[in-house]
Amino acid sequence: MKRVVIVTAILLAFATPCTATQVREGFPYQLDLSLESGVTAGGLALFSGAVAVGRGQEPLTLDEIGQLGPEDVNGFDRFATGQWSTTAQDVSDALVLTLMAAPLGLAIATPGSRESWTIAAMYGEVLLVGNGLGELLKGVVNRTRPFAYNTDLDIPQQAKLGVGARRAFPSGHTMNAFAAAVFLSSVYAKLHPGSAARTWMWAGSLTLAATTGFMRYQGGKHFPTDVISGAIIGSVVGWGVPKLHEVDGVDLTINPSGGGVGIGLLLRR
User: Fold this and answer.
1) Average pLDDT for consecutive 10-residue bins of the chain (269 residues)?
2) How many angstroms from the chain centroid is the CA of residue 223?
3) Whole-number Å distance between alpha carbons of 193 and 132
């Protein structure tokens, strides 16, 4: 979590100058100081809440671990209690890092320093809001990970006794993977509306994100509902943040009309 906060802070700090200078005409995104301040403040508030809640989390005791059984888990998630694979865990780590780096590559490859920093700032906000919400939910829900139910002797007991064993919901790896994939694909499609590569971008990135989630399941780290929830959160944040920054959008304006008040629509330009 700390690494995500640091990376996000760096992206937002370097991108701040963009709020004072217009990017080139025709670029589909723009930064606005009030919007960036609001989104950043909201993300930091989520992280603050997560830290506060996390302080009260207690690890499982040996007695509690001994009382866990697959029958305690709903039928949809139950098969996850028999999963454990360090290889799958390593693969998921590699996949999520690859996906999280891809939007930074898009920012670097975009012509114009202001445009690059605009993309970097939006992505920083995606990481901040997504991980802030994810960490808060992990602390509030306090769900035990599937491997804690598993009696496989290859599973280190120390892993079951750590606080992290009670932070299953939602899947952070899956959330970050889908956030990066949806952000990358939607921004690329907006920057290159006529490119045939858009379909491949969506298909490839979402396939890698889904594989990340499946590896978290196979690794015994998450239940299917953890993975699905992480995918939904990541997708919404990864799509929503750049959507807020689109140059063409709809604003509500209140205009006097006769003796009353009328509501009109104004396209932002």
Assistant:
1) 50 48 74 95 96 90 95 97 97 98 94 92 97 96 97 94 96 98 97 94 98 98 98 98 83 42 39
2) 18
3) 32
Output the CA–CA distances (angstroms, integers) from residue 121 to 4, 17, 177, 256, in the order listed.
14, 10, 18, 37
Closest-CA residue to 246 (of 165, 198, 190): 190
**Angle at Cα 43 formed by Cα 42 and Cα 49, nearest 5°?**
90
In which domain, by residue range, is 31 found?
2-267
Kindly write down the DSSP assignment for every residue of the chain, as one continuous string.
Answer: -HHHHHHHHHHHHHHGGGGGS---TT-SB---HHHHHHHHHHHHHHHHHHHHHHTT--PPPHHHHHH--GGGS-TTTGGGGG---HHHHHHHHHHHHHHHHHHHHHHHHSSSHHHHHHHHHHHHHHHHHHHHHHHHHHHHH-PPPGGGG---TTS-HHHHHSGGGG--SS-HHHHHHHHHHHHHHHHHHHH-TT-THHHHHHHHHHHHHHHHHHHHHHTTS--HHHHHHHHHHHHHHHHHHHHHTBSS-EEEEEEEETTEEEEEEEE--
pLDDT in the model for residue 267: 41
Which residues pair with residue 266 across a beta bridge?
A: 251
Nearest partner of 167 among 56, 20, 247, judged by Cα: 56
pTM: 0.86
Structure confidence at residue 164 (pLDDT): 95
Residue 177's contacts (CB-CB under 8 Å, 6 or more residues apart) are 95, 96, 99, 100, 208, 209, 212, 213, 234
What total number of domains does the chain contain?
1
With both helix axes pointing from N to C terminus, report the angle between 113-141 and 224-244 in degrees, rounded to the nearest 10. Answer: 150
